[in-house]
Design a protein that fits this description.
about 35% helix, alpha/beta, Rossmann fold, 10 strands
Length: about 260
């Protein structure tokens, strides 16, 4: 069974001056799955993401990716291994076109990011792949549009395209539907499901209807520790989870389909 696990944490812990933000988290993300991290505000979800991508150093514990201990590696090494967090390479350049944004991400993968002296036409060889990625996120028709002119939901779709350009083995999506209206939420939900066909996704997401409809496994964090784990049907009926989501969030939890 261990061969099916692409990412594992063992006793992952992070303390800040005596405050334990992540406490002894043992996480197993199965290859080819969509795995969601959920929990009330302050549960430690974003800290967990920061530990996995080494923007924070663990106080204790291990992180194993694809069979290799990456606990001591820096963010650049981890990205090169194929662990790509959406915001790392999704800083959309507002005054570049949609196509040019994806092309920049493709350059980074090729290691030609700093070849500023080359003429722009030398990048045209990347256009076919860039258009293919834009097609995957329903943005091919907006290829020539400056990114600044995109609606918010479409900008998030562009961010996913730039993430895909890095050929991730593991995509970490941090609140991909945050701040969106219903139509955009549904578009991004379908997009995540579609691009997950041949890759692994670990996502932090507050929208329980999104989590319920696409996540294979859900890990619930509370006060930095794992409260429950399993498929949505099991987790959503867990009394401890329902109690953790008391208030407005509990309505979302029970109301998700």
């Amino acid at each position: 069974m261990s061969g099916d696990v692409i990412l594992e944490t063992r006793g992952l812990t992070k303390e800040f001056k005596g405050f334990v933000a992540v406490a002894d988290v043992n996480l197993k993300v199965r290859r080819g799955s969509i795995h969601a991290l959920i929990g009330p505000n302050g549960a430690g979800k974003t800290t967990c993401f920061n530990l996995l991508t080494k923007f924070l150093t663990p106080t204790a514990g291990e992180i194993v990716f694809d069979g290799t201990d990456i606990t001591r590696e820096n963010p650049a090494h981890i990205a090169r291994r194929g662990v790509i967090r959406s915001f790392q390479i999704s800083a959309v350049f507002p005054h570049l076109s949609v196509l040019e944004n994806v092309r920049v991400a493709l350059q980074r993968k090729l290691g030609t990011s700093f070849h500023f002296w080359k003429p722009e036409r030398s990048l045209e060889g990347l256009n076919a792949r860039a258009l293919e990625l834009l097609r995957a996120v329903d943005l091919e028709g907006s290829a020539a549009t400056p990114a600044v002119e995109l609606a918010y939901g479409r900008k998030r779709a562009l961010e996913i395209a730039t993430t895909l350009a890095m050929e991730p083995k593991l995509m970490l999506l941090d609140e991909p539907t945050q701040g969106m209206g219903l139509e955009d939420v549904d578009r991004i939900r379908r997009l995540i499901k579609r691009v997950s066909a041949d890759r692994t996704i670990l996502m932090v997401e507050h929208n329980m209807s999104v989590v319920a409809s696409i996540a294979d496994t859900i890990t619930v964090l509370q006060r930095g520790a794992v409260l429950a784990e399993g498929p949505y049907e099991q987790v959503s009926k867990n009394p401890a989870v329902i109690e953790a989501y008391m208030g407005s969030a509990s309505v979302e939890l029970k109301g998700a389909h």
